[in-house]
Hints:
14 strands; alpha/beta
Amino acid sequence: MNMYFCPLFSGSSGNALFCQYGRTRLLIDAGKSGKTIEDALASIGADIRTLSGVLVTHEHSDHIYGIGVMARKYGLPLYATRATWLAMEDKVGKIPPELRREIRAEQDFYLGDIGVSPFSIPHDAADPVGYRLWGGNLSVSTATDLGWFAPEVCDRVAGSTLVLLESNHDPDMLKANPRYSAALKQRILGKKGHLSNESCAEALLRLIHAGTADVILGHLSGENNTPVLARNVTSKALEREGIRPGEDVLVEVALRDQVGRVYELKETR
Length: 269
Ligand SMILES: [Zn+2]
Ligand SMILES: [Zn+2]
């Protein structure tokens, strides 16, 4: 069976990632309005009513904005760690107990046909996680909102068929941004903040050496980065090691406000 993955939205203005394997379709995060996500799903031929659930990474609003409405309107189960549940309770409204699923980092489970491995990421939230989703010998890993690419994260993500990794900002653009306070800059640059283009490129090199063939750069800042810049930093880092972006490895950028393309991962036997 093939696996399908689509970054519907990725960035500080809202995140929602779609994955399908076998009969199971799910979302990682729903950080736009329920209606926007419903329309985005429809545009790739997926009816929101056919989703099996939403996996939540952490309680920041760009990841949970639409989940309360979506859960209540479509009876969608929500999966989050206990600390994330506590931290987002007052933001998402009342969630019926039967739709409330508690998960733990490093504890794998199945959601229908899709294997789910939540893993801890370093970020300034209650108990944030990234996810590795697997089916057959295919897997997709997503890690955004992380201050640095910790070895434990690398271990969990290495070997994935496709990786969506954060390429949040250009440090010089961020430092020069007059609209950001010193405290906010400190937060973003810190070890529990967001991954810079350079740190992303470095991490991807390690993952590519470990067998990953397709990479998507995600969670780009709207103010402190551009898609061209993010792609160039990673492409140059790969070229320095003799890896040809677009030939040896697919390098694409998930856009903030445009539904991404559907990636089809083909099972090899
Ligand atoms: Zn975020
Ligand atoms: Zn966050």
